Amino acid sequence: MSLAAAQPATQPVSVRPVLEGRGLTKYFSVKRGRGMFSGHDRLFAVEQVSVGLAAGTVTALVGESGSGKTTVARMLAKIINPDAGNVLLDGEPVPSGRPRSYARQVQMVFQDPFASLNPVHRVRYDLVRPLRIHHLAGEDIDATIADLLRRVALEPPAQFATKFPHELSGGQRQRVAIARALSVRPRVLLADEPVSMLDVSIRLGILNLLADLRDREHLAILYVTHDIASARYLADTIVVMYAGQVVEAAPSARLTDNPAHPYTQLLLSAAPDPDRVEPPSLAGRGAPPSLIAPPSGCRFHPRCPHAMAICSAKAPPSVTVAAGHTANCWLHVDPAQRQVEDGSEPAPAPTDGMFQRPAAASASADRHHPEED
Questions:
Q1: Could you tell me which CATH number the domain at 17-34+45-117+173-241 has?
Q2: What residues have CB less than 8 Å from 116, skipping those under 6 apart?
Q3: Calpha distance 294→48 (Å, rounded)
Q4: Which among 250, 189, 192 is positioned nearest to 216, based on CA atoms?
Q5: 231 close to 200: Cβ distance less than 8 angstroms
Q6: What totals of helices (H) and strands (E) does the chain contain, helices first?
Q7: What three-state secondary structure class fits 307?
Q8: Distant-in-sequence contacts of 357-361, Cβ < 8 A, 24+ apart
Q9: Cα–Cα dist 105/136, whole Å
Q10: pTM, rounded to two decimals
Q11: H-helix or E-strand containing 263?
Q12: Quick one: what percent of the chain has pLDDT higher than 70?
């Protein structure tokens, strides 16, 4: 899916988060060595990540593999508990564990639709079970199952209800997984890369289904993806993660039209664009850092074409570059403050290539692309 073909999602209906993560942090213990040389290291999977999901909106969590996106989604689903930070539902902290009342309101759709369905049971079983667990099964349960399957465009419902997972295509299995999540009437849907294992030809159908659920049922949706083009197509807001941290967040159209962080610019330059005349200039080459021993300061500085001395010495602050648009980058801090902090001259601005040094925060809001009007 190209950025050129993507259309921005509708404007957010509500700004108050239904579900919110504040300062979420998660470490994992990783074993190293064997025998007398064995030990454990700490992997910094997610650090100080905050994200809010409002009713009637889609928030996309974007980043490459290993950036911590799925860990954030699992913490919001309370499948795993954060080591620091809080998960709040309607502004109230959620206790440790996964209370049944919380599980009913916050449902998750997993990446692999085949692994998430029991292969020895028919579709009807997968839809009936959550209804019975949460005491939502009515007198006419077959009518309820038929309604769920129609909501995800699986018709005729009677035919699909009797099928086993292996008798369905990948897209149909993912629709069943979404129907199972909808069966308990949730308010929040956490979709962890729901189209990454599907054929390109059927991905758009799933994205349109999620958009329809947002608009018709007023769900708050988290869309986890590594594809920034699909995030632009579906989401109202995009949050970009790198090496376990948030580096930029903004309304989707603004973020893709005016990326403020060099890593976001790198993601956009790598996305397919049929209108691009020349090959993209990927100045920020390299691999993500080890999260067992992450680099000091800004974690992107080893790959950043604009890195300054302060970037390796101190983590950047979150800077507001426009209304609703924040970036964690020293490029948007006043040069005088960088001079004081750094003690050296800022790096010169690049003169060509994909990456252009972003202007200061006061000027970023004035950027305009008349061809996008």
A1: 3.40.50.300
A2: 109, 110, 177
A3: 15
A4: 189
A5: no
A6: 13, 12
A7: coil
A8: 357/306, 357/331, 358/260, 358/261, 358/321, 358/327, 358/329, 358/331, 358/332, 360/332, 360/334, 360/335, 361/319, 361/320, 361/321, 361/332
A9: 13
A10: 0.85
A11: helix 262-270
A12: 83
Q: Is 172 helix (H, G, I), strand (E, B) or coil?
A: helix
Q: Which residue has the tokens 């967040």?
A: 249
The least confident of 37-51, 60-74, 149-163 is 37-51
Tokens 């309304």 — which residue?
Answer: 251
Residues 188, 51, 59, CA angle at the centre, nearest 5°? 55
| 3-class secondary structure, 183 | coil
Mean pLDDT of 116-122: 92
Closest CA to 130 of 113, 145, 115: 145
**Local confidence band at 372 (pLDDT 50, 70, 90 cut-offs):** very low
Q: Name the residue ranges covered by the structural domains of the chain.
A: 17-34+45-117+173-241, 290-372
Contact 71, 46 (CB under 8 A): yes
Assigned token pair, 194: 């729901």
- The closest of 100, 323, 25, 88 to 220, measured between CA atoms, is 88
Burial of 143-170, coded b for 16+ CB within 10 Å and e otherwise, reads ebbbebbebbebeebeebbebebeebeb
List pLDDT tens digits, range 262-296: 999 988 888 777 776 666 666 666 788 888 989 99
Structure confidence by residue, pLDDT tens digits, 228-266? 999 999 999 999 999 999 999 999 999 999 999 999 998
